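Hi everyone,

Forwarding the result from last night's run.
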Amino acid sequence: MTFPFDIKATDGRARTGVLKTARGDIRTPAFMPVGTAATVKAMTVDQVKQTGADIILGNTYHLMLRPGPERMERLGGLHKFMRWDKPILTDSGGFQVMSLSGISKLTEEAVTFSSHIDGSKHVLTPERSIEIQADRLGSDIVMQLDECVAYPADEKRARKGMELSARWAVRSKNAFGTRDTQALFGIQQGSTYENLRKESSERLQEIGFDGYAIGGLAVGEGHEAMCEVLDYAPEFLPKERPRYLMGVGKPIDLVEAVYRGVDMFDCVLPTRAGRHGQAWTWDGPVNIKNARFAEDESPLDPMVPCPASQDYSRAYIHHLIRADEILGKILLSWHNIAFFQALTAAMREAIEKGEFEQFRKDFRARHLKA
């Protein structure tokens, strides 16, 4: 395997470890801030680093449209372009097959997109997705192209998507080949059907990947249904390789997924919520726009080691958001990313101490209502 994955401790199915990459170690459980268009929205890379993030995510579909993969390569790749020298994982563009289904066409060979920017046509094959991610953007962790089936889906539709994803996994692996400083992850599909998840995992392991993602969740199925899938889906994947739950999620989702054996996560929630006035704290989410914060001199969350969390009053941030000042969005995004990093750090510590079940119980009591 390209990147060694050392599991340091386990507590039930939860585990903590280190994925060693050419650009640095990724401590797991790990939350990857989403840098869709070569930026974690409203944050500088220095702020992102200060939160404790070991890795960020870039979006192939959006970067393919603007500034374009060939231009990105001429400019030295994604790391140099955005001044981030730690690992980057890029998604494959497969999620847009579902989320932009109105402007895309799917065949066995490829998915054809109409750009949401200017209407121009783009063809994304598994081979082209690998080329863009690995050769043009210079991603450290590359994802196979897959089809993410919308929820709900009957078993026939879910099987069709799973089987196409499996065939595309073979093509993605062949296009990627063997590389010394980049890794390729396969993606388990199968919607909410245990037999399909199992078959998908078996097919992926026959191909062989550096890591394995659980795809097709966080697409509207809800927290309980997601947990039901995670009761079995991670166990179908190799224990010795990292498991990545794509597009998840709320803090309670992360805790429950780690409890079930997941190692890596990404989600736009922290920065999106921040831009809309929501702060995530150890006691749950806070809508800072509420009038009750107008004269609240307490910080957002003094237990989160971040200037945005500790150095500005809720009253001040309330004012900034109500006045639609850019700084308000910056501070809340910064705080939320820092909270998610503090959460993963706390989970790592609890697993190492053998106290994760109590951590989960306490966290659920505070956050399930959120």
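The CA atoms of residues 10 and 248 lie 22 Å apart.

Cheers,
N.
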